[in-house]
């Protein structure tokens, strides 16, 4: 394998990361708009992309290892070192640009995914609060953390009025 093959694998990985970012942003829009019904579909689509990304990452690693050996570098050379150890010419810049794009996409994915996790936790908390408010078993915590006072029940409507 050569530098062209590795570059092609890196392009493929970048495209999959962009697609994954898109899927997570769709998931975020669904969560933010309250369309929770479609979130499982968006999550499944993201999982498909993640599986494809695993395969692409393996292919990229094989191509990088082969190129490293071709360039007289250790087989386990990372992309950063591969770019730095590239022969004089365009490959240093090409691989450095790939690396920068991959790092940027990964950072964006982490940020969106963290936002999605927050939205999911908030939705779960809101659903639990709603359930607690309308069920008879909803209790209010006392200052010592107990809920065993029968008169300290949370109520949606005060029935004593």
UniProtKB/TrEMBL annotation:
Gene Ontology biological process: bacterial-type flagellum assembly
Keywords: Cell projection, Cilium, Flagellum
Listed name of the protein: Flagellar protein FlgN
Source organism: Leifsonia shinshuensis
Taxonomy of the source species: Bacteria, Bacillati, Actinomycetota, Actinomycetes, Micrococcales
């Amino acid at each position: 394998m050569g530098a062209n093959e590795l570059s092609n694998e890196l392009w493929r990985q970048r495209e999959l990361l962009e697609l994954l970012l898109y899927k997570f942003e769709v998931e975020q829009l669904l969560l933010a708009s309250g369309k929770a019904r479609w979130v499982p579909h968006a999550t499944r689509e993201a999982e498909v992309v993640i599986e494809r990304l695993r395969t692409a990452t393996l292919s990229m690693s094989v191509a990088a290892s082969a190129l490293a050996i071709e360039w007289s570098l250790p087989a386990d050379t990372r992309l950063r070192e591969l770019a730095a150890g590239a022969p004089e010419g365009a490959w240093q810049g090409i691989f450095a640009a790939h690396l920068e794009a991959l790092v940027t996409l990964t950072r964006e994915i982490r940020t969106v995914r963290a936002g999605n996790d927050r939205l999911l936790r908030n939705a779960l908390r809101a659903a639990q609060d709603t359930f607690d408010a309308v069920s008879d078993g909803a209790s209010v915590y006392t200052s010592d953390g107990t809920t065993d006072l029968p008169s300290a029940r949370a109520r949606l409507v005060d029935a004593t009025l």
